[in-house]
Amino acid sequence: MIEIQNLTKTFSTAAGDVAALSDVSLTIGDGDIFGIIGMSGAGKSTLVRCINMLERPTEGKILIGGVDIGSLGKKDLRQQRRDIAMIFQSFNLLMQRTCLKNICFPMELAGKKKAEAKKRAMELLEIVGLPDKANAYPAQLSGGQQQRVAIARALASDPKVLLCDEATSALDPKTTHSILELIRDINEKLGLTVIVITHQMQVVEDICRHVAILDNGRVVEQGSVSDIFASPKSDAARHLVFPEGFEPSVFDADPSCFRVRVVFNGDDTATMPVIAKMAAEKGILANIMAASTKTVQGKAYGTMLLGVDSKENTAQVIDYLAQYGVFAEEVE
């Protein structure tokens, strides 16, 4: 288990101190695939660098398996880092080395015999689906293939935690999907804890079980991916989950209109015309001010923002939709 407790990271600049992270607390279970998402400048990369102590927190603790890694000496910290592997957007392969030798490199640094390292590297190439690329150089590979080699190299130290820092941001959608499938497969087969740092909600949808949303260095929302998608509470979460459905202008369009947020949470009502049924049965006319739906892990999720003409009708809308198991609430 990874526990991040009241983490703060402040950088000193010519213009004064800047807080990249402020009082961040997260708990990530063993074997989970945990997403950390936010817009540019939210503090994502600083957080991931603190997790492996490439950046020292200003305040707070990071415990991995109950061990406060910030309290470790240099030797023990080096040992701890072998359990924490990392892959990056830019792959960071050694261009003068073949794929096989790139994967062997961390094992050689750890003192493993060459024959043993080569055998393990070939096993890892098999795992990532590139057994025929052992003698190829990175420049001869596509971006997706290079990331697969980088993943194999990250697994060479038999880590317990895999940190993915915008690992698919440089890839096209099809290749991104295949890399995410690979990471999910590795998570299931090897039992690794995976932390995915991203600004792309699609990545979270495709692979993560739990997610934390960062905004200006703070965690504004966290929970299971299905719960966050079904009912985002914070403005940052709403903009990430349904960017087209929660523009501020939608809320400001008609101040006399009562607004009801309707959430479809993956059950059959996501495809049932409940709003039309309500209008026919109850005579309540609701203006659909905004709507967005998407599929997450094989289930339909969506949200609507309805405009209703009175407080009384607002209550009736909420009660009617509740009969069908549809969550609805009045929003200001």
Protein described:
This protein has helices at residues 44-51, 74-81, 99-109, 114-127, 143-155, 173-190, 201-207, 225-230, 235-241, 248-252, 274-282, 311-322, and strands spanning 2-13, 16-28, 33-37, 59-64, 67-68, 84-88, 161-165, 193-198, 210-215, 218-224, 258-265, 287-296, 299-308, 327-331. It is an alpha/beta fold and 332 residues long. It is elongated. 36% of the residues lie in helices and 30% in strands. A hairpin with a 2-residue loop joins strand 9 and strand 10 (218-224).
Protein topology:
Layout: E1 2-13, E2 16-28, E3 33-37, H1 44-51, E4 59-64, E5 67-68, H2 74-81, E6 84-88, H3 99-109, H4 114-127, H5 143-155, E7 161-165, H6 173-190, E8 193-198, H7 201-207, E9 210-215, E10 218-224, H8 225-230, H9 235-241, H10 248-252, E11 258-265, H11 274-282, E12 287-296, E13 299-308, H12 311-322, E14 327-331
Parallel strand pairs: 3-8, 3-9, 6-7, 7-8
Antiparallel strand pairs: 1-2, 1-4, 4-5, 9-10, 11-13, 11-14, 12-13
Helix pairs in contact: 3-4, 3-5, 4-5, 5-6
Short description:
By secondary structure, the chain is α/β, with parallel strands linked by helices.
What would you call the shape?
elongated
What's the main sheet like?
6 strands, mixed
Q: Which structural category do the helix and sheet elements fall into?
A: alpha/beta
Instruction: Output the number of helix runs.
Output: 12
| Low-confidence sequence ranges | 248-252
Give the beta-strand count.
Answer: 14
Strand fraction band?
25-35%
Helix content: 25-40%
